[in-house]
Amino acid sequence: MRVGIGHDTHRLEPDRPLWIGGIEIPADCGAVGHSDADVLLHAVTDALLGAGGLGDIGRWFPDSDPRFAGADSSRFVVTVREELDQRGWKVVNLDVIVFAEAPRLAPFERTIRERLAELLQTEIARINFKAKTGEGVGPIGRGEAISATAAVLIDTDSRVEAP
Ligand SMILES: [Zn+2]
């Protein structure tokens, strides 16, 4: 078994789309980034890379690379999941936290978990989602930024039992 963690932060600006976990969330502000700036998928990508001992997202998908300008971050997750597949690893479970002052993300929990399960080719029961605010303080609390943290456990294919 191996464990990986990932963390990511993006600046928020008005009148931009807000992508979280591969879902476009209606919001006044969206995240700024080279790709679609999906903070959650970036944290998940880094957690998967960490578990596999494969480095980090900046090495695989550099934000200086024009190929990734405006990219759908789903492809980062799928690429890394395929790399893990090839090495005989399967996801046991994924736990994530998104830190955002607004909007409220609880209504999107199920949709985001379904999308993550689809990208990881696993069951929704293996995906846990949590949302937190910044309690009105710091860059998160002031609505200047959004962050996400992800932890993933992977195991060799044959040992991953039904959830
Ligand atoms: Zn990012």
Descriptive overview:
The strands form 2 sheets. This protein has a 5-stranded mixed sheet with strand order 4-1-7-5-6. It has a two-stranded antiparallel ribbon with strand order 2-3. It has one domain: 2-C-methyl-D-erythritol 2,4-cyclodiphosphate synthase (60s Ribosomal Protein L30, Chain: A), CATH 3.30.1330. By secondary structure, it is of the alpha+beta class. Helix content is 28%, strand content 31%. The protein is built from 5 helices and 7 strands; from the N terminus they run E-E-E-E-H-H-H-E-H-E-H-E. Helix 1 packs parallel to helix 3. The structure holds zinc ion. The site of zinc ion (ZN) has 5 residues, from strand 1 and helix 1.
Spell out the blueprint of helices and strands.
Layout: E1 2-14, E2 18-20, E3 23-25, E4 29-31, H1 39-52, H2 57-60, H3 74-86, E5 89-99, H4 109-119, E6 127-132, H5 138-141, E7 145-156
Parallel strand pairs: 5-6
Antiparallel strand pairs: 1-4, 1-7, 2-3, 5-7
Helix pairs in contact: 1-3
Zinc ion is lined by residues 8, 10, 33, 39, 42.
Terminal residue distance: 16 Å
| Proportion in β-strands | 25-35%
Overall tally of structural domains: 1
Instruction: Give the oligomeric state of the chains in this entry, treating copies of one chain as homo and distinct chains as hetero.
Output: single chain
Widest sheet: strand ordering? 4-1-7-5-6
The secondary-structure class comes to alpha+beta
CATH architectural label: 2-Layer Sandwich
> In sequence order, what are the helices and strands, one letter per element?
EEEEHHHEHEHE
Helix content range of the residues, please? 25-40%
Q: Per the principal axes of the C-alpha atoms, what is the gross shape?
A: globular
Q: What gyration radius follows from the Cα positions, in whole Å? A: 15 Å
CATH 4th-level superfamily? 2-C-methyl-D-erythritol 2,4-cyclodiphosphate synthase
Residue windows where pLDDT falls under 50 for at least 5 positions: none
Number of helices: 5
Text of the CATH class: Alpha Beta
Instruction: Return the CATH topology.
Output: 60s Ribosomal Protein L30, Chain: A
